Amino acid sequence: MTTPLPEAYTKLSPAVPQWLNKGDNAWQLTAATLVGIQSMPGLVILYASIVKKKWAVNSAFMALYAFAAVLICWVLVGYRMAFGDQLIPMWGKGAPSLGQKFLIRRAKVPESTHYHDDGRLESEMVEPFYPMASLVYFQFTFAAITMILLAGSVLGRMNIKAWMAFVPLWLLFSYTVGAFSLWGGGFLYHWGVIDYSGGYVIHLSSGIAGFTAAYWVGPRLKNDRERFPPNNVLLMLAGAGLLWMGWSGFNGGAPYAANIDASIAVLNTNICAATSLLVWTSLDVVFFGKPSVIGAVQGMMTGLVCITPGAGLVQSWAAIVMGLLSGSIPWVSMMVLHKKSTLLQKVDDTLGVFHTHAVAGLLGGLLTGLLAEPALCRLILPVGNTRGAFYGGNGGIQFLKQVVAALFVIGWNIVSTTIILLAIRLFIPLRMPEDQLLIGDDAVHGEEAYALWGDGEKYDPTKHGWNNSSYAEEIAPSPYINGARGVTINL
């Protein structure tokens, strides 16, 4: 005798169509929120605390502005440029994603069905069991974090007005091309290039575009380049923690379902990150004699980036291998090659995004071409018979596909970022004027991250309200007139 299903799983309503899977929809919205938290407040906090004190507000604001601006551009035209009907093999037809008819229908990727010349289906369309609104928001969080990661290369000197113009232009004319080509039904998608959750679309793109932008914007002041200590290491760790934990949504949401591949991806993500952090820290101890908190965060980051293109496609022992390499190869590129390369020395990449994202993202994409496990590939990939080179068969061809895709992403981001910045430079200087560079946040925003008593100001009981509050009758003012330490907020 068959047990009837509970009413919650059988009752349909206008808001619960037959194709809707509540579990998949709940997970996709949760994953999107986790990725959003990586940016806001994760990277906002990380950027504000990892930079020199005088640039804390400006760095946080660049991330905050990018998050908001990307969302509006995304729903107005960006989503369908990246995931809509094909315009050309590397770009979709831009259109708004705001109408209820579009947003409440069942999601599908890609929107266009593609066929070979002989009429055979080129690759199957993916149709998740939730509405298009969930997919639009999920993919927005990826676009936003790409933009914010790019900002890490130009912190501490880019003209904020130029940044405000750059964000929508780069999103629409650079990011959407990579996203459509690899994810949205473009030529690399149908060719079978593997980019599980953004090793190329997000990390290689942001690293290369950030390095290119740093070249055109120009360097920080000499004294800022020579001494740029974080203003709050503990707060930096809080931002890094949000980034790490949010990565479960980053890679766990990529299958577009709460399925077994999502579980594999989340586990592998954390294994690789932990391994990479330990390797980077060990190298710091061996070569510099002490562990570095900033180094540990960099190692965490490279591990998370490296596993991203293959998180749900490699076995967990392979995630350890990828962690060993992501904790060492980017370490060598940052600590050794950077000091020996004239180009790397010339370009002022503030947070080393080239090393932590471009190098690590490229490494992850190539390792996925070697280590992608055939059974796991069959669970999720649209192109059949996909495997890494170490598993024989057509794996060698897969590795070559990964190389070609990386070269395309690198070339496109160099060209598009250069053109966008040169166009902006015709109307707005890319670099702040010298007087703003000398002062920092107060000159750019009229605000400072920390306003401390004692910074040239004597404690005045009348000014701070001791004579006007009943609280003054209970607690006397501090006797340390010139040495008070606390935080004041001017409303």
TrEMBL record:
The keyword Transmembrane helix applies. The chain crosses the membrane at residues 26-48, 60-82, 129-151, 163-188, 200-218, 230-250, 262-281, 293-311, 317-337, 358-383, 403-428. It is a multi-pass membrane protein. One of its GO terms (cellular component) is plasma membrane. One of its GO terms (molecular function) is ammonium channel activity. It comes from the Eukaryota. InterPro entries: Ammonium/urea_transptr (IPR029020), Ammonium_transpt (IPR001905), Ammonium_transpt_CS (IPR018047), NH4_transpt_AmtB-like_dom (IPR024041), RhesusRHD (IPR002229). Keywords: Ammonia transport, Membrane, Transmembrane, Transmembrane helix, Transport. Residues 26-450 form the Ammonium transporter AmtB-like domain. It is found in: Cell membrane. Belongs to the ammonia transporter channel (TC 1.A.11.2) family. This is Ammonium transporter. The lineage of its organism: Eukaryota, Viridiplantae, Streptophyta, Embryophyta, Tracheophyta.
